[in-house]
Amino acid sequence: MKNQKFINRLGFAWAGIRAAWKNEHSFRVQTGFAIVLLIALLLLRPPPIWWTLCFIMAVLVLAAELFNTALESLIDHLHPEIHPAIKTAKDCAAGAVLLLSCGALVAGAVTLLVALGIVS
Q1: Which of 24, 65, 72, 81 is flagged as catalytic?
Q2: Which of 14, 41, 58, 63 allows an S-S link to 34, with CB 3.0 to 4.6 Å?
Q3: Could you tell me the CA-to-CA distances from 12 to 17, 71, 74 in Å, in that order?
Q4: HEC sequence for the chain
Q5: Could you read off the pLDDT of 4-34 as tens digits, one per residue?
Q6: What is the radius of gyration, based on Cα positions, of the chain?
Q7: Cα→Cα distances 57→99, 107, 110, Å
């Protein structure tokens, strides 16, 4: 739906986020981790650069999960049968989410170490 008003495009985006929340357990779990991260940041009060890094990583993980969900939904609709190329596409999308999640975990761990004064 090209050339829609900005408010309409926001509505489409919000509908996508709601659909992922409703249909994807992984998205709900990752959102839960993002909330726990926010609470940890509020309690630990690391320097602003670490807040920024953690926020970026959390948003990237959630965005990757949305892309993964979109890709899986489209593939399942267009080609519901099992096919090696389809499996590869889905596995690669899931791998991207996993890599970002691991990066977010490392960023969170380093932030914790900085906030506790273990590393500077």
Answers
A1: 65
A2: 58
A3: 9, 17, 16
A4: CCCCCHHHHHHHHHHHHHHHHHHCHHHHHHHHHHHHHHHHHHHHCCCHHHHHHHHHHHHHHHHHHHHHHHHHHHHHHHCCCCCHHHHHHHHHHHHHHHHHHHHHHHHHHHHHHHHCCCCC
A5: 899 999 999 999 999 999 999 999 999 999 9
A6: 17
A7: 11, 8, 13
Q: Which CATH class is domain 6-115?
A: mainly alpha
pLDDT tens column, 54-113: 999 999 999 999 999 999 999 999 998 989 999 999 999 999 999 999 999 999 999 999
Q: Is 72 among the catalytic positions?
A: no
d(CA 65, CA 21): 11
pLDDT in tens, 99-110: 999 999 999 999
Backbone angles phi, psi at 47, to 5 degrees: -60, 155
Is the model's pLDDT at 2 over the cut of 80? no
Q: Which amino acid is located at 23 in the chain? A: N
Percent of the chain past pLDDT 70, that is, above it, reads: 99
